[in-house]
Amino acid sequence: MTVLQSFRARTGEPLGAPLVASTPQQIDAAVQAAAEAFEGWQSSDGATRGALLRALAQALEGDREALVALADDETALGTVRLNGELDRTAFQLRRFADIAERGVPFAWLDDPAVPGAPPAGHPAMARVQVPLGPVAMFSASNFPFAFSVPGGDTASALAAGCSLVIKAHAGHPLTSQRVHGLMQQVLQALRLPAGLIGMVQGGGNEVGTQLIRHPLIAAGAFTGSTRGGAALQAEANARPRPIPFYGELGSINPVVALPGILAAKGAELAATLAGSISLGCGQFCTSPGVIVVLDDPASDTFVAALSTALAGQNPHAMLTTGMRRAFEAGAKALVAAGARPLVNDLSDGPAPRPFLAQVDAATFIERAALHDEVFGPAALVVRATSVAQAVQVLQAVGGSLTVTLWGVEHDSAEARSLVRGATAIAGRVLFAGVPTGVAVTAAQQHGGPWPSSTQPMTTSVGDAALNRFLRPVALQDAPVWLTARQGQPC
Amino acid sequence: MTVLQSFRARTGEPLGAPLVASTPQQIDAAVQAAAEAFEGWQSSDGATRGALLRALAQALEGDREALVALADDETALGTVRLNGELDRTAFQLRRFADIAERGVPFAWLDDPAVPGAPPAGHPAMARVQVPLGPVAMFSASNFPFAFSVPGGDTASALAAGCSLVIKAHAGHPLTSQRVHGLMQQVLQALRLPAGLIGMVQGGGNEVGTQLIRHPLIAAGAFTGSTRGGAALQAEANARPRPIPFYGELGSINPVVALPGILAAKGAELAATLAGSISLGCGQFCTSPGVIVVLDDPASDTFVAALSTALAGQNPHAMLTTGMRRAFEAGAKALVAAGARPLVNDLSDGPAPRPFLAQVDAATFIERAALHDEVFGPAALVVRATSVAQAVQVLQAVGGSLTVTLWGVEHDSAEARSLVRGATAIAGRVLFAGVPTGVAVTAAQQHGGPWPSSTQPMTTSVGDAALNRFLRPVALQDAPVWLTARQGQPC
């Protein structure tokens, strides 16, 4: 019997008694129950879905104090951050409730018959959206609420008409169990089947692998490392029937800072950037990991100010001791690959010190080891000789959740080439501010080319996240009884 | 030096001199040229894209007589069908010209800033669509125009702002070369770079494999067998940077025919279905391969009429001798797996005889060998004891481009369960007529769950085909010079 242990993130001490990982029989039962729950949920109307999502938001808020305290103990993310994350999670649930109630993603595209021979003539067609089925959802370590049991994947899948089996993250098992218990109470109060939101737990890879392999699972949704996501995607593809797998993975989020804006307000930007690099101990998928500057005195001043500001940051403890070790190994790997340390005050203990290094663009472009994400408060300054070379740096990065461009306020050939270079590799391009903080809104795109996600046409944050769980179907010559049901799947 | 030979499909005799397959150097040069052409084409306006697509349609029509004669010699599809296919191909090109000119797929979603703290407050966002880059396009054997060099993938990728390197199909190399020559003349007349529409040729897997592995290729689009598509998808996933791969693969297209409608007009439906099974010698991805009937006297009469009607069909020669051999092997495999032949007049020569067999639903559900597509004029009657078992047959099929439901004109619990069962596995559900013939229109969905396609959320036919080649990007706090360019990528 595999066991699973919660730890206090600040001290590494065990928290509570050991838990038992889900058995193969329990995983199968959870998926079977989710498949049974899907039968009814796929045909539910927007009001029913909205009511569930709003009740889930309310249940989270109602247990706020205990949830935040428990999550803080398990993750060391701090109560300010965790209260904000809980707010965001409730906001997401209510936003998808709105969307389900308004029904726009489920609208039918009517395409009436055109008489005559093909290609111009055609039968009556309607393009509709059907929910995929039971979704295997893999929680993240770094967002115990917003990208975990009650998070964006859960909210968007439920709004789409899918049921779920959630793999809780082993980094916060007690928080996951408490949240899942609240969600089960809501299901019971609304007389909805318990299987609509199943949960399984486990420390290693076995539970997740068995879950994504289950024949009744129709899609996977994952937030975590590129390595973990790639392994699960390979499992999804190796099934007798491959299924869509939405992995939101690692990212190094380049920031390109041009000399003009650095001359004008480099000190302010250095302070902002240092805060972004060390925010949440750098444990964000949008944490800026590469800072591209041009050879220029303003860049020198900026890098010096950034070094000073970063050295003054005091990141909190990391989520797990494994991540703490991986951070140190990652920083050392950058140095081994040729980066010169600028801030390198390595320390023992669960809270790491920030790390900053520097390398020239030609070396960066050439060495793949310099493109690896270092999860934690680390960044690499890359010095380019020209805007053209800065674009080549972006091409070498290849895929990222975000690219930030500082200094392209005015139109020019160079500005356009940077915008093209940024949009070519990123899901979100920022022209001010820092990439940490991902707004839950209509236009958001959180997902870019590999290695930042497995399906770059989709987003895991924002309104379009719901579309991941719907599949278009064309109805040809549909009977009246069916077309009269528009907006509500059969 | 690898050679490639065209054959006359009706006789198997060589047609013309041997051709030389593209060398690794030529493939690399074609991709490099496509990447250079993409630099400009990604920023082209709708009028420019529309002008190219319309000129390509006109060029095809202008060379109609010679093209159809050559394609008929290489494929044996017949001049009536090939003239219709050329019309359809020109129609598709002009339809995507319309779409590019109107610009709807490129419209920006504006999401103005909301003041205040997150989660409700957020910066100004805009959701835009950017073309992916050079596309590797793999032509089909069975549509020498509409799913080949000048086909739907080409039209939709060009309209989206992508360049292409097309892998011509070895089943019709001379037609491919002639069409590509015409397209090159159009590019020259419009002063567009030759590399915008590159072409490579080869008989084995090497050329296609090298093409999809090329680091500058941004996406793949394929129409063909499940086996070939799965191999190329595995290559796309195994790249250091995986890319989207849109494979439109094999499908067995179940038709469910209920006793009521068979009693009313079974004879007419049998004749229509026999024509659909043998149309184009069954060489359509939408060819009906499984006919589900319930145990009922009306079903018996229908199956007898279908057998008679199918035995009276005279399919033309198959596209290649390899496909001819595969058809016979596939029919024999169904018998070996337990199907009882009803029409089994196997013959020698390039034109096969139609094949029909029958099996009970329980055996069909249990034996995966009975779910394999037999490409050619073949179908399998599956006898179910109830509507519930017919739904289980659909679940066993698992994924299909189409499902056809005959006899659900009226609302009932059984009708709903069939509609749910059909939409769960298919991209298109028909309530009348036969699945062969795929309208090029706004609501079309040509692509369903595995094994019918690799990306069931996308379509290779219809207006939404263009979306496969665009990727959403969120612009955050974009400067005025950029937002003023709405609808035209930077």
Notes on the protein architecture:
Two copies of one chain form a homodimer. The first copy, chain A, contains 15 helices and 17 strands. The two termini of chain A are 43 Å apart. The first copy, chain A, has helices at 24-41, 46-62, 64-75, 79-102, 152-160, 173-189, 206-213, 226-238, 259-278, 297-311, 321-336, 361-366, 387-397, 413-423, 480-483; strands at 3-7, 14-20, 109-111, 125-131, 135-138, 164-167, 197-200, 219-223, 245-248, 254-257, 290-294, 340-344, 355-360, 378-384, 400-406, 426-430, 470-476. Chain A has two domains: 3-249 and 453-483, Aldehyde Dehydrogenase, Chain A, domain 1, CATH 3.40.605; 254-430, Aldehyde Dehydrogenase, Chain A, domain 2 (3-Layer(aba) Sandwich). The mean pLDDT of chain A is 96. The interface between A and B is large, with 82 and 82 residues.
CATH class of the largest domain in chain A: Alpha Beta
Structural class of chain A: alpha/beta
Largest sheet of chain A: 7 strands, mixed
Distance between the termini of chain A: 43 Å
Low-confidence stretches of chain A: none
- CATH homologous superfamily heading of the largest domain in chain A: Aldehyde Dehydrogenase, Chain A, domain 1
Kindly report the greatest chain-chain contact and the residue count on each side. A-B, 82 and 82 residues
User: Could you estimate the helical fraction of the residues of chain A in percent?
Assistant: 40-55%
Q: What is the helix tally of chain A?
A: 15
Sheet with most strands: strand arrangement of chain A: 12-13-14-11-10-15-16
Q: What share of the residues of chain A does DSSP label as strand, in percent?
A: 15-25%
What is the strand tally of chain A? 17
Radius of gyration of chain A: 24 Å
Estimate the mean pLDDT confidence of chain A: 96
